[in-house]
Specification:
alpha/beta, 434 Repressor (Amino-terminal Domain), Rossmann fold, 3 domains, six-stranded parallel β-sheet, six-stranded mixed β-sheet, 11 helices, about 35% helix, about 15% strand
Length: about 350
C-alpha cells in the first residue's frame, strides 16, 4: 500500500480558489503588501480543515515565517501551578488569549545554579529565541534587568507583565495602575471621616511597590513607615494608636496578618477602633477572597493584554516599545468603617 500523500499549500490554494501566496499569508499572519479580507481568510481556513492540512512549522521558519509559538519566562523560582498562587491568573489570561490568537505556548522551566536561579542566557545562547516572542513575569534583580536589556537590544520581541524599567528603557509592558488604585482607597477612607493615616511599606524597590507609595504620597494624608513585616512590633502599633492613627494603609497582606494579631491581643475591634486597607491581592496562597478592604488587580486581563500586545507586534501592526496600564477595582470589605470615639490605648 502506498503512503498517503501529504497535503500541501498548493492543494489548499486550489480548494479555496486563491493563490498559494494568500494561503502562506494566512498561515504566517504577516500580510505585508498582501491584504486579505476576513471572508477570504475564512475560506482558506475552511479548505485547510476539509483537506486535513497540517502546516510544516520547520519549513515556515526556514522561509522566514513564524512558528506561532510564544515563550513564557518567569524569574520566580518555580512556575505557578496552583490557582491560589499570585501569578497563576496571569498564566490563565495568557493561555486564553494565545489560544484565541492561534498561538501555542512554550514555558521556559529550566533553572541555573544555586537557589534555582533563572537566567535567559545559558552557555552564551539566548533560550528565548526558540519562540517568536516572549512574555515575562516575576521579580527582577539588577542582574536580571541587565540581562533583559541585552535581549531587547538583540531584537527579540518581549512584553513584561508588570511595569519594569531596564537599562535603555525599551521594554514593553502591561501593568496595573497601582498609583490610582491606592489613591482611590485613601479617598474611600477620607469619605469615612478618617484624617490620621499611616502607610506601612516593605523596603522593596520593585516598580509595583513604588507606584503604590507614589499614589499614597500624592494624597498628602500621612507618613510612610518602611520596615519588614517581621519588624512591625506590638509596641510600634501601640505608639501609632496613641498618635490617634485611625487609618492604616498596608502595602501587602503580610502587614495585614501582623495587624490582625495585634488587634486580637489588645481586645480591639475593626472597624470600630481602627480601619485598614490592603493594597492588592494576597501574595501568598489563600483560600477564597479576603474580607478586608482592598483593590483587585486585573491579573487575567493583564495576561490577555500582554499577549495581544506581543501578537500585534509580531504581525507588524504596532511598533515597540508600548506601555499599557489597566485599572484596578475597589473591593470594599469589613476592615473599614466610619471614625468613632475610640478608647485610649495604654
Amino acid at each position: 500500500m502506498s503512503e498517503k500523500r501529504r497535503v500541501t499549500q498548493k492543494d489548499v490554494a486550489l480548494r479555496a480558489g486563491v493563490s498559494q501566496a494568500i494561503v502562506s499569508t494566512v498561515l504566517t499572519g504577516r500580510e505585508g503588501k498582501i491584504r486579505i479580507n476576513e471572508e477570504t481568510r475564512q475560506r482558506v481556513l475552511q479548505a485547510m480543515r476539509e483537506l486535513g492540512y497540517v502546516p510544516n512549522i520547520a519549513a515556515q521558519n526556514l522561509a522566514g515565517g513564524m512558528s506561532r509559538i510564544l515563550g513564557v519566562f518567569t524569574y520566580e523560582s518555580v512556575f505557578p501551578t496552583s490557582r491560589k498562587d499570585f501569578y497563576y491568573p496571569f498564566l490563565e489570561g495568557i493561555e486564553e488569549e494565545a489560544a484565541r490568537a492561534g498561538f501555542d505556548l512554550l514555558l521556559h522551566t529550566r533553572t541555573v545554579g544555586k537557589g534555582n536561579r533563572r537566567s535567559i542566557y545559558q552557555g552564551g545562547s539566548n533560550r528565548l529565541l526558540i519562540a517568536d516572542g516572549t512574555l515575562l513575569l516575576g521579580f527582577m534583580d539588577t542582574a536580571h534587568r541587565e540581562e533583559l536589556a541585552q535581549v531587547i537590544a538583540e531584537g527579540h520581541p518581549c512584553v513584561f507583565i508588570g511595569r519594569r524599567e531596564i537599562p535603555g528603557g525599551n521594554l514593553s509592558y502591561v501593568s496595573a495602575d497601582y498609583a490610582a488604585a491606592t489613591r482611590q482607597l485613601v479617598e474611600y477612607l477620607l469619605e469615612l471621616g478618617h484624617r490620621k493615616f499611616v502607610y506601612l511599606a516593605e523596603p522593596n524597590q520593585q516598580e509595583s511597590a513604588l507606584d503604590r507609595r507614589l499614589g499614597y504620597q500624592q494624597t498628602g494624608v500621612g507618613s510612610v513607615v518602611v520596615l519588614e513585616p517581621a519588624e512591625f512590633t506590638l509596641a510600634q502599633f501601640k505608639r501609632l494608636l496613641r498618635a490617634e492613627i485611625t487609618a492604616f494603609v498596608l502595602e501587602n497582606d503580610r502587614f495585614a496578618r501582623k495587624l490582625q494579631s495585634f488587634v486580637a491581643r489588645l481586645g480591639l475591634e475593626v472597624p470600630r477602633d481602627l480601619s485598614y486597607v490592603v493594597l492588592g491581592d494576597p501574595l501568598g496562597e489563600e483560600s477564597g477572597v479576603p474580607e478586608w478592604t482592598s483593590f483587585e488587580i486585573p491579573r487575567q486581563e493583564m495576561g490577555r493584554e500582554a499577549v495581544r500586545l506581543l501578537v500585534s507586534h509580531l504581525l507588524g501592526r504596532i511598533g515597540f516599545p508600548k506601555y499599557v496600564s489597566l485599572p484596578c477595582t475597589l473591593r470594599p470589605g469589613n476592615s473599614t468603617g466610619p471614625v468613632l470615639q475610640r478608647n485610649q490605648v495604654r
